[in-house]
Amino acid sequence: MYQKSVKFLSNLRRENRQFAVIGLGRFGRAVCQTLCKMGYDVLGTDRDEKIVSQVLAEKIVVNAIQLDSTELTALKEAGIFEFDTVIVAIGNFIQESIITTLNVKEGGVNYVVAKASSEIHGKLLKRVGADRVVFPEYDAGCDLAYSLTKPAILERFDLDPEHSIVEVFVPQEFDGKTLAELQLRNRYGLNLLAVGKDEKFKINPAPHERLYKGMMMVVIGCNKDIQKLPI
User: Fold this and answer.
1) 124-130, Cβ contacts within 8 angstroms, sequence gap of 24 or more
2) CA–CA separation, 190 vs 192, rounded Å?
3) CB 21 within 8 A of CB 87
4) Phi, psi of 212 (to 5 degrees)
5) Could you tell me whether strands 200-203 and 191-197 are parallel, antiparallel, or unpaired per DSSP bridges?
6) I need a labelling partner for 195 at 20 to 30 A (CA). Which of 4, 37, 55, 108 fits?
7) How confident is the model at residue 7 (pLDDT cuts 50, 70, 90)?
């Protein structure tokens, strides 16, 4: 049976989670705005009251408050420790970023994502407990490279630095062929998770399933192998 889905990978991520974003610069605002559009509950915070007011006025996020995230008491009183995920989006002020990350982990937050401005900064964030460290400029560069070389990729979910799940249009070369004929695992080292058409997906399709141009497929595997898929 086909499973209705706007985007297969987006729906994999859909959970009833609450997010707090600390630091409302360009990166923090983008995170807030995107999470809100996806329907999640988001609280934005910044130490600058003018920035908080601006974010609220521009309706980037519904809820935003001013606080000093280096103060453990301020975080506790704001209820930050009750959130499932906290994103520390303070990249340029290393000391504030590290102290904030340490504070939210010691406060009991289950999952903390922290923005780093350098490799050393990233290592320090890991040392104080960050569950995930992101490098926005590096990641943006990687995404651009993939979009230029593999424009057929609709969405990408990185499992680790070497493996990903991608949603991709069925290549012209695969048009009209069955999965048994394509032998994705043997030829490309990839495993097929789902195939879709008209915003509906069939999970774990049978070998006799036939693919056509315009359909979508979701595959998992090594990034190097994914790059070998024909456009």
Assistant:
1) 124/94, 124/98, 125/88, 125/97, 125/98, 125/101, 128/98, 128/101, 128/102, 129/101, 129/102, 129/105, 130/88, 130/101, 130/105
2) 7
3) yes
4) -135, 150
5) antiparallel
6) 37
7) low
Write out pLDDT tens, residues 176-210. 999 999 999 999 999 999 998 877 888 989 999 99
C-alpha dist (Å) from residue 130 to 77, 100, 121, 124, 127? 22, 10, 11, 9, 7
CB 86 within 8 A of CB 104: yes
Task: Out of 7-21, 78-92, 94-108, 173-187, pick the least confident.
Answer: 7-21
Residue with tokens 């499932």: 84
**Are residues 188 and 129 in contact, defined by beta-carbon separation less than 8 angstroms?**
no
Q: Identify the CA nearest to 66 among candidates 155, 199, 160, 56.
A: 56
How many residues in total does the chain contain?
A: 231
- C-alpha 184/C-alpha 203 separation (Å) is 16
HSE-up of 126 (CA within 13 Å, CB side)? 10
Distances (CA, A) of 147 to 108, 141, 158, 177, 184: 38, 10, 15, 26, 22
Q: Residues 85-114: what's their mean pLDDT?
A: 94
